[in-house]
Amino acid sequence: MMILEKDWRVLTVGDGDLSFSLSMINNDFVKLVTPTVLDTKGKVLAKYQTNGIGGLQRLDIDCKYQFDVTSQDSWKLLLPNHYDVVIFQFPLLPAVGSELSFNNGPSINIRNRILLRKFLMYATKYGLREGGANLIYITSKDVKPYIDWNIETTLIDNLPLSYLGKSEFDAGRFTGYTLRNVDRDKVIKGTKAYTYAWSPIEQHTISNQLIQNIDYTNTGCRYCKAGPFATEQEQAGHLNSARHKRMIDFEQEWRAYLRCENTKSKHEEG
């Protein structure tokens, strides 16, 4: 179960129809929520026949519209460093027409990783409050294309964050929460999902409540989370598989992006 405390100040980002933010309040998981969405209020109302806007208004909860998690300008409009936990539920860029897409640019796999990396970066810098719970959550499905992002291992290079572990996400506990298609009014069938947790605090108190990564260093393939392999033949078969080769391609593309990001950062500092 997603770990929440009633007195935590919660910021949700990308809560498409706002049903998750409303559900947390209605189910008494937390008392203080600041919901944000990328769309305008009018677009949310037009896109989703049922949504959480009315319920949040009745509770006098102010939603922030046109909030772009990849833009520092959006983050700077929030109360600075105010929140205990920042939550991104089921992030996914549309395959075409996304804010981050451009001709001959990164693959959709890498663009989703960039989205999540920027979210983690800005949530740490602008969202978390000193002395608070200091947690960032991403909930994601345990199927393709989500598992191809390697959320646990690839996102925080050179960021002041530690990956803490994951917990199973049970949407049924959040009565009233509807999983939506990323760009239209369509309910998505629930599949197995996990909430992944990060913190600037390396030894966080919630770590012992989370599922920890399997160490594939000597027993399998960390890129594909495969193994352990019983024989060298089995290992060789995996290394020659289409999935492994695809994951290696993603890893190489991601490392190239990080090198470019690092070069750009050094140039701006200079």
Write the layout of secondary structure elements.
Elements: E1 9-13, H1 19-26, E2 32-35, H2 41-47, H3 53-58, H4 72-75, E3 85-89, H5 108-127, E4 135-141, H6 151-154, E5 162-168, E6 193-199, H7 232-239, H8 242-269
Parallel strand pairs: 1-2, 1-3, 3-4
Antiparallel strand pairs: 4-6, 5-6
Task: Give your account of this protein's structure.
The chain has 270 residues and is α/β, with parallel strands linked by helices. It has 8 helices and 6 strands. The radius of gyration is 19 Å and the shape is globular. The protein starts with 8 loop residues before the first strand and ends with a helix. The relative contact order is 0.13.
What attributes does this structure have?
alpha/beta, 8 helices, 270 residues, single chain
The biggest beta sheet, please? 6 strands, mixed
Series of H and E elements: EHEHHHEHEHEEHH
Distance from first to last alpha carbon = 45 Å
Structural class: alpha/beta
- Coarse shape: globular
Mean pLDDT: 91
Radius of gyration: 19 Å
Q: Strands across the major sheet, in which order? A: 2-1-3-4-6-5
- Residue stretches low in confidence (pLDDT < 50, at least 5 long) are 98-102
- Distinct helical segment count: 8
Specify the helix fraction band: 25-40%
Beta content comes to 5-15%
Tell how many strands the DSSP assignment holds: 6
Question: Can you describe this structure in just a few lines?
Answer:
The protein has helices spanning 19-26, 41-47, 53-58, 72-75, 108-127, 151-154, 232-239, 242-269; strands spanning 9-13, 32-35, 85-89, 135-141, 162-168, 193-199. It is α/β, with parallel strands linked by helices. β1 (9-13), α1 (19-26) and β2 (32-35) form a beta-alpha-beta unit.
